[in-house]
């Protein structure tokens, strides 16, 4: 596979530029982080009610990879239980490390399956997921916001 071409494919660009995954959610769980090496920022909002994600959005600036990853994250966690989120996070980690992972669980995220070979881009890709890890910890604790 021509991995660099895949990295900037239409799919990735569409996610990065799509406003429907963006915005703030009042009263939601919120965490943010920054990738200093690239200037990427992701501010993530997750509303978790009755055992699942009822809404999710993000605000962010930065490179295409970091923003597309955040948009895909927002899309894939909607409607998911915390157990399903854990499974997605575990598979994202495996993919990033270049280990075998379950493609069925990751959907469109598999366009990033070559990310493990590009350490600089890995940081960009993983930014949103490191933010989700913190939100997941809040969900585990039962935090409301
Ligand atoms: Zn970046």
Jot down its keywords:
Sufe protein. Chain: A, 19% strand, 6 helices, 3 strands, 3-stranded antiparallel β-sheet, binds zinc ion
Structure write-up:
The protein is of the alpha+beta class. The chain has one domain: Alpha-Beta Complex (Sufe protein. Chain: A), CATH 3.90.1010.10. The protein is built from 6 helices and 3 strands; from the N terminus they run ααβββαααα. A hairpin with a 4-residue loop joins β1 and β2. α2 crosses α3, α3 packs parallel to α6 and α4 packs antiparallel against α6. The longest helix has 23 residues. It binds zinc ion. The site of zinc ion (ZN) has 8 residues, from α3.
| Mean pLDDT score | 93
Q: Which strand-content bin applies to the residues?
A: 15-25%
Please, how many domains?
A: 1
Count of DSSP-assigned helices? 6
Assembly of the depicted chains? single chain
Q: Kindly report the CATH topology.
A: Sufe protein. Chain: A
Give the spatial strand order of the biggest sheet: 1-2-3
Largest sheet: 3 strands, antiparallel
- The percentage helix is 40-55%
**CATH hierarchy, class:** Alpha Beta
Structural class: alpha+beta
**Ligands bound, unique:** zinc ion
**Regions with little confidence, pLDDT below 50 for 5+ residues:** none
Give the termini distance in whole angstroms. Answer: 42 Å
Outline type: globular
């Amino acid at each position: 596979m021509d991995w660099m071409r895949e990295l900037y494919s239409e799919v990735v660009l569409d996610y990065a530029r799509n406003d429907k995954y963006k915005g703030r959610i009042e009263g939601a769980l919120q965490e943010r982080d920054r990738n200093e090496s690239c200037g990427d920022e992701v501010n993530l909002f997750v509303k978790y009610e009755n055992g699942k994600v009822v809404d999710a959005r993000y605000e962010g600036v930065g490179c295409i990879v970091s923003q597309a990853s955040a948009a895909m994250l927002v899309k894939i966690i909607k409607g998911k239980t915390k157990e399903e989120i854990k499974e997605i996070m575990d598979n994202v980690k495996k993919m990033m490390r270049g280990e075998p992972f379950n493609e069925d669980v990751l959907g469109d995220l598999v366009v990033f399956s070559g990310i493990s070979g590009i350490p600089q881009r890995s940081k960009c890709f993983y930014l949103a997921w490191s933010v989700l890890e913190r939100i997941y910890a809040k969900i585990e604790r039962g935090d409301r916001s």
